[in-house]
Amino acid sequence: AEDQTPDWSPDGSQIVFVSDREGERQIYVMNADGSGQRPVGDAPGQVYNPVWSPDGRKIAFYATDDDGSDHVYVMNADGTERRQLATGVWPSWSPEGTQIIYGGSDGLYLVRGDGTNPQRLIAQAFFGEFSPDGSRIAYIAEEAGSVSVNVMRADGSQQTALLRRPRPSW
């Protein structure tokens, strides 16, 4: 079995991760010492990248369904009350836990934690992470044959490339 993408709970007492030990990729939670490993929730397909909310009460993740579509979900930390927020990948919580940034098919999006008010921040980007104070977002973008690491304000303004590399061509 493969165990992947661990994420610490905010209080450090638990770790959420993905495992295919039962066949399909599912979300598991364990105590920080490795004990108490247990699946949580009923995943809606092949799951990826579970991340704790800053208050430790929720877990965001994305899943690929049978037709190959990726969707961002949020559920309670015990696996109950799962709901789909958006079509996309790689969710990441804002520091205060009220918003989630994720990669959509045509850019980087921001949505409220309850799934309302989705807005595209920037095109051609697919992964973002808030700064610790929530004022900025670091993100990965692809354009003109290159991949870059960038930062911008949390409202999508003042985009600055920090690192740009040519995309390998095979």
Question: How is this structure best described in words?
Answer:
The protein is 0% helix and 56% strand. A four-stranded antiparallel sheet has the order 1-2-3-4, with no helix packed on it. A four-stranded antiparallel sheet has the order 5-6-7-8, with no helix packed on it. The protein has a four-stranded antiparallel sheet with strand order 9-10-11-12, with no helix packed on it. The protein is built from no helices and 16 strands. It has strands at residues 3-8, 14-19, 26-31, 38-39, 46-52, 58-64, 70-76, 83-87, 89-93, 99-104, 107-112, 119-122, 125-130, 136-143, 146-153, 160-166.
What's the β-strand tally? 16
Note the beta-strand portion.
Answer: over 45%
User: What is the succession of H and E elements?
Assistant: EEEEEEEEEEEEEEEE
Principal-axis shape: globular
Please compute the radius of gyration using only Cα atoms. 16 Å
**How widely separated are the two ends?**
30 Å
